[in-house]
Amino acid sequence: MRRRIVAVFSIAAFVAACEEPEEPASSYFDERIAPVLRIGCVEQTAGCHLAAEDGTATGNLDLSSYDALMRRSDVLAPYGPYPVGLLLLKGGEAVDVQVDTLDPPDPSKPDERFVRITTDIRHNAGTGIGLSSRSYNILKQWIGNGHTRSGTPSEEQATNLGSCRAGAGTAPGFDPDKDPDESDSFRGFRDQVQPVLRETCAGGNCHGSPISDMYLACGDTEEELRWNFFVAVEHLADPASTSEILRRPLATARGGTFHEGGTVFGSTEDGRYQTLRSFAENFVETHPEALVPEEDNEGFRFFANRVQPVLVRKGCAFLNCHSSSMFHDFRFRGGSQGVFSRAATRRNYEMSQLLLATESEDPNDSRLIAKNLYPPEDVEGGAGMAHRGGFLLEDFGVEGQKPKPASADLCDDVDADTGDLNTIPAYCVLARWHAIERDERIASGELTADPVSGLAWVARPDGIGDVRDFHTYRPGADLRFATVTLDAEGAVTMGTPLSLLDGCGLPASVDVRTPAVSWDGTRIAFAVRSDAEQPLRLYGVDPDGANCEPLEGVAPDEESRNGILLHDFDPAFAPDGRLVFASTRGHLGEGYSYDGPTLTPASLAPNANLYVFDPEDGAVRELTFLLNQEVAPSFMADGRVILTAEKREREFHQLAGRRINLDGGDYHPLYAQRPSIGFASATEFVEAPNHNLVFVAGPLGATDGAGAIAIVNRSIGPDQDDRDPSDRSYIHSLSIPVPGALGGMDGAFRSPVPLPGGRILAACDEDARSLTAKTLRFELCEIDPRTGTVRVVGGEAGQSNVDLALVYARPNHGVFESRIDEVNGHTEVVPDQTDAVIHVQDFPLLATLLFSNTREGRPIRSDIGGVEILEALPPPSTA
What we know:
Layout: H1 11-19, H2 28-42, H3 66-70, H4 86-91, E1 96-100, E2 114-118, H5 134-144, H6 183-200, H7 222-234, H8 244-247, H9 271-286, H10 298-313, H11 342-354, H12 367-370, E3 398-399, E4 402-403, H13 426-444, E5 454-460, E6 478-486, E7 492-494, E8 498-499, E9 511-517, E10 524-529, E11 537-541, E12 549-550, E13 560-561, E14 564-565, E15 568-573, E16 579-583, E17 609-614, E18 619-622, E19 630-635, E20 641-649, E21 652-660, E22 668-671, E23 681-687, E24 693-698, E25 708-712, E26 734-738, E27 748-754, E28 760-765, E29 779-784, E30 789-794, E31 800-807, H14 843-850
Helix pairs in contact: 1-2, 6-7, 6-9, 10-11, 10-13
């Protein structure tokens, strides 16, 4: 078993630090704080948090100097629900936190809507300092005074930066055209509170930014005033003194709590603060019913009453873990000392819900759960994945001499609905929530009780080509379908196959490619053509073979242009019914010195990009615009598009994963951008129920685009194959459970589809000894990534079975829309505009990322003399 977080404190070290302080140095930190940290954490035998020559430190925390500690100042602040910061919670004893709930835990006390939890913050070194010890109090006082070098309290107050922003926000329950029902409070807000918020908070770099949960508009229009009132009320609580709108801006030394924007009001005597307090107290007293969330579904209530407190108890809400300032998918809103605004609870619910795999019967398929379980490579029987935060939901102790991994059956006798959250396993609370959410979606008809209904695939003669070889006519193919059932362990049983083409009115011999299944599992799209002179066109069919017909409105008006066939292929359904597909039709709008289809610069093949078809208006919009191939789109659970992109320049050629939002924003490198990953081809990207990415890894030039099925834990980051295997501080994001011929063994694979339950279906040639063999023949195989086993489950004998598509209903979380707080920067696509405005904040830093994507230090050169923007042009179509 490996732990990712290591020691911060030890008891003996702190006693020594208190009793034998070093001689005074040049500052309060050097005199009083450094001895506690240096003897307690840096000079102890284990060498914890000792900076190495390469700049790394155990636990990513260097305590060798004040400046080094300030690089991780996030460990000091008492952020969100916690009364002290991570430094004291990791090294000190557990503390009690009172966390808001929607419903009273004890029905006999209807006014007590909170639960008391005791923190369970994991630390390899255990408890190093008691709450009543002198060392603890020295550190706590210093941190509370602003953790300055001099030790004197910081009196600095934040200023309202930037101009305010026009335009009301949007949120469930907000009506911009109607005055609030609480008309008396609204009048007082408009006359007294709005001027204070505009003066102190509504600047464009503060709460005037639309990414803020408490976004404030200028307030110049009635709609903006209604919005500001609405969002202010969203941040009130009962009693009023616990409201985030009062606690956050107030100095911590005066009773306030951590605020990303710093101290706005130095004391409660500030007249502007008193204005806010009067408004809050009056509203809470006169309109308490307005503070009760309207959501009445069982899943939301269980989350607010049980799951959110558990996440607080386990330490998920620390500033540099899953706070709102992080750049990952789970940015937990920490509330204020255990009080969560309605907006915070709703956002936390929505983010957490997205990380639940309700399409699966197994709660361990959920990323929210699996990230906190033992990985199978660490503990036999584990169902988790690598997580820098550790294995926070493993509460079942040991069995014999081995850890006992969490599983749903261990919760059979656990009362997850009403049991004491401080004593029952936290895992069981989340597993129960998964069951509630799944049952609700089944009851609504969004999901079916059986996780999977069938599999569609293409059976064709050998010699299928890779994902870029769409333009080669390969007849003799058939679109096949078979029912699929999963047993209790997730193993596959396939029914008798049938053809889905019988009712399509197509000739007997056709070329069929890449089926895709709609989000609700009721429709299959695929590409087909009947001779080499025709382009591929998109058709749709029901899983039982009915209603087979061309997809109306997708095909262009002509079959060829510039001597190039206008192929449409590789369809992928969005959650809202729109269709993304690859096409060679070329650029559709202005802004280029050429139009229509083009050839790729190196291979002179028809150039494919991605397009979006909207059945609501029949419009087709171009989504990507590169000169090399962009193909094989699929969707992530939140409605973002992932695809295979060909990157090709002189002396460089790589097939890699990319990501883009459906509205055209955030075109983003996804994975395998450079050969430092260990291979040059990464294709056919799909997302698993646990949100890991699954793809085919192999060399360029592999027969039929074959390789090994690879899995990437994308939240860990890029990977490289030349790291020292003994470097346990380096967590690999990539795993290849069955290397096959890529790893010098037998086996070639393609077309992966992850299954609910953790296994993967794929096309496989188990006997292939080389990925460049003259001929490969693919069967349908099941791969168990946890054990590395492969089992043939079906396929048409004597043919290659590829292009798998699982037929099942998925939970619909909508389509992700571009926003300003994305990692790759906000992108806005304005219809009918051909000019672009690009803002690059740091060219020297950007330059280091263009040619290397490894997790290691890199020199940053500041002597860039200029930047040139060049347009790459396609070769002539007659080349």
